[in-house]
Specification:
This protein is α+β, with helices and mostly antiparallel strands and 135 residues long. The protein has two domains: 72 residues, Wheat Germ Agglutinin (Isolectin 2), domain 1; 58 residues, no CATH class. It is built from three helices and four strands; from the N terminus they run E-E-E-E-H-H-H. Strands 1-2 form a two-stranded antiparallel sheet. Strands 3-4 form a two-stranded antiparallel sheet.
Length: 135
C-alpha cells in the first residue's frame, strides 16, 4: 500500500536529455499500490474492469473460488458472445468474441501488441492466461 505523503502520479512525466517520455502507472483500486493490471469480469450480464496488483487479484480469485467450484460451466471458459442484430442473416453475421475483446483490452493495457480484428494470436492468449485471466 502507498504510505508516502502524496499519492503517486499515475501519469508521471520523465525528462532526460531534453527528451520527454510519459509513463502511465496503474494503481490498485483497493490498496493504492502501483504495479496493478486491469482485469475484466462479468456478473449478471454487466461487464466490469478493476485495476489490481497480482496479490489483490489472487485474493479476488480466492474469494470467488467456492462460487466457481459450485457453479456449472456453460461455455468454453470465455464470456458469452452478444446476440446477432435483428434482420441480419445468419450466414453474414458472426457473433463477436467477447473473450477476444477482453484479451485485446488486457493486451493493450499491458503493452502487448495485438491485432484489432481476427483471431487473437496464441502467444497473446497464453500471456493473458499466465497473467491470471478470469478463467
Amino acid at each position: 500500500m502507498h504510505t508516502g505523503g502524496e499519492p503517486p502520479d499515475p501519469e508521471a512525466v520523465l525528462v532526460q536529455d531534453g527528451a520527454v517520455a510519459k509513463k502511465t502507472l496503474i494503481i490498485d483500486d483497493l490498496t493504492g499500490e502501483t504495479g496493478a493490471r486491469t482485469h475484466a469480469f462479468r456478473i449478471d450480464g454487466v461487464d466490469y474492469e478493476i485495476d489490481l496488483t497480482d496479490s489483490s487479484f489472487g485474493e479476488f480469485r480466492m474469494a470467488l473460488k467456492p462460487y466457481v467450484k459450485a457453479a456449472r460451466q456453460v461455455s468454453g471458459g470465455g464470456l458469452p458472445a452478444p446476440r446477432a442484430r435483428r434482420g441480419a442473416s445468419p450466414s453474414s453475421t458472426k457473433p463477436a468474441s467477447t473473450e477476444a475483446a477482453v484479451i485485446r483490452a488486457w493486451a493493450r493495457a499491458n503493452g502487448v501488441a495485438v491485432t484489432e480484428r481476427g483471431r487473437v494470436a496464441p502467444a497473446v492468449r497464453d500471456a493473458w492466461l499466465a497473467a491470471g485471466s478470469p478463467r
